[in-house]
Specification:
Length: 469
Amino acid sequence: MSWEPVIGLEIHVQLKTRTKMFCRCAVGFGAGENTQTCPVCLGFPGALPVVNRRAVEWTILLGLALGCEIPGQAVFSRKNYFYPDLPKGYQISQYDLPSCINGNMLLPTAEGDRVIGIVRAHLEEDAAKTVHVGGRSGRIAGADFSLVDYNRGGTPLVEIVTAPDIRSADEAKRFLQLLRQTIVELGISDAEMEKGTLRVDSNVSVRPAGSAELRTRTEIKNMNSFNFIARGIDAEVERQIAAWESGGEVRQETYDFDAASGRLTARRAKEEADDYRYFPEPDLVPVEPPAELVERLRSELPEFPATRIRRIEATLDLDRATVLVTGGLDRLWGETVSAGAEPVATANVVANTLVGAGVDPAAVSATELSKLLEARDRIPRGAFDEAIAKLADPGFSADPYLAQESVSDTTELEPIVEAVLAANPGQVEAYRGGKEGLLGFFVGQVMKETQGKADPRVVNELVRAKLGE
Ligand SMILES: [Zn+2]
């Protein structure tokens, strides 16, 4: 029997507002532990919350970008549970009446647009950060003691819940890349997984391919990169298929995925919503966004990444278009092509060379980049790479690099090629014995000998000719 994965995602996005969700403490990294706190976010008795207007507006903005309806009324509720990182003993969240509902996001694929449903996006406050000291890999098990930093406590957090519409680990990854780019472009969060401003939990089940049933799902937590998420989902799908096929069953559990070992470890039985005893927060009135506000926010929406992928795909292909858009590189690409550069070559250089050199695409002049691309076959490879790496430097000019000539004179290059071949008799023998992939090695050695000044195409021909002798 063949099986079909059924995957839904819960994504937490920390908003980069200046202040916290219900108090005026600053939001931000790097401050000394427990310095950004006050009676409200430390949960002192009698302290009263005040809603952060900007956080509400940004949540609506995100909801609109995800095609959601914005109900006329949203209500904050108390989600009750006890944990050291939650000093009030409850988290203020939205429960039955969230800010955004019933949306969807288009995911461009080779087989057309996939529609991923968005069940809801709601606003809540983040918990504080607990650090376990002395244990293995920061887990509580085996730790000597734990510390709590309340700076993060009360930071505005949007939770996005997708429908179980995702059908593979790869699709989950591509959805997340597109969602992340959408969030970053709205300017509401840095959405960086390494910093914890974007956190993803995956709900995974499997079912016989073609059926519409929903079997028991499990949740995978604590994955801090899109690749780990994809690997964690793959591992869980495999585990569940093996369980069903061996006559066993899947229990509703939460797992941690350890990327180093590729193993899933069960954490705890999942709480049901009933366990949290939700009730409306008595200290806050419902949020009732005026229609004019919603319409103003709607008018501020930029062109969506998915739309841009489809537009750019017409010139390039889906994969290149996706890499450019989800990498935030498509604006530079478009401007460089408008300045006269060839589209595919530009896409490759921008997505590989430029990103590889750690250059900020927003600081690059498209005009200078297009000049370099135009001269690429004429100037030394080393000069080209160096120029790309310096593109974002203030006042960068391509001119000094364009003045350099690559060495294409065979009489000058021949002795260098011969010396390289003579210095690597083993590789020469292997090449002649059929390992033709070594051609690149010889060319690379010659490029190195000439400090990148040789014309690689001429070197290629020379090496090929010499080895054929
Ligand atoms: Zn505070």
